[in-house]
């Protein structure tokens, strides 16, 4: 499927998270931030999601529900995400990646703009691994290593309020960008 743009209708979701909780989108009471990350144990993804863990209360207060997809199977993913305070979806066959137009390609790692993020993420992982606060990725992760990230903000009616399709592995919304988009979207939803 093609990439979704602002104003498009997002596919409805009725899924089960790795934790076993039911996950639905759209959410009639909140905005939904869909994060399409790479593979289980991806150092860049791990570092990125830690920033969202630290901001979990702020995101909840802003009316945002986080739903994070990985193109890994449940068993491969479980140990990497068990302490995340939001819904994580295992999508090893990339069904939802295709449905939302999320791509993969060598540019995920070959784009020089990804390299500083790779260095930061690997450095953080080297610090966390001996402390058992991170796990090594599989040598051959399901879904491969060349996935590109994507972020979509979905309104309560299922409309895409904003979308970002990454051009390299470290090209994704920050917490502050999500909070700014949520404030803007909240004003637009209230005015409608």
From TrEMBL:
Pfam families: AhpC-TSA_2
Origin superkingdom: Bacteria
Domain Thioredoxin: 4-187
Protein's recorded name: Alkyl hydroperoxide reductase
Organism: Catellatospora citrea
High-level lineage: Bacteria, Bacillati, Actinomycetota, Actinomycetes, Micromonosporales
